[in-house]
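Recap slide: Small ribosomal subunit protein uS11c, sequence and predicted structure.
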Amino acid sequence: MAKAIPKTGSRRNARLGSHKSACRIPKGVIHVQASFNNTIVTITDIRGRVISWSSAGTCEFKGTRKKTPFAAQTAAAKAIRTVVDQGMQRAEVMIKGPGLGRDAALRAIRRSGILLTFIRDVTPMPHNGCRPPKKRHV
């Protein structure tokens, strides 16, 4: 009796490749959210699907050190390192929030070698704001 030929599509015999390294992303969007307590850097493709992200908290900065510019710089560098390996060359930068890490994160993005098409500040600003509380009676 002849030996059964194993299928290459089966999980046991074929080597599974990583899908993350297979997709090449030439252009993306870098979102920097800088609050007073943390800085979050998210990198997406043009359609808005997240490719990589990092924050000062995930870079092992805890407490008051999370809000420092150095923590923001480290978070941006860590998030960008993965997408540069996937072949990203150009990016748009959206910066949101009033935090200390805004400029430091932008400096780290500039240093990474990615060509920036534009930098936009998308901090939400109230046009008229919420209704103030009623006057206090003393």
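The helical segments are 19-22, 69-85, 101-111.
The CA atoms of residues 73 and 135 lie 44 Å apart.
(End of recap.)
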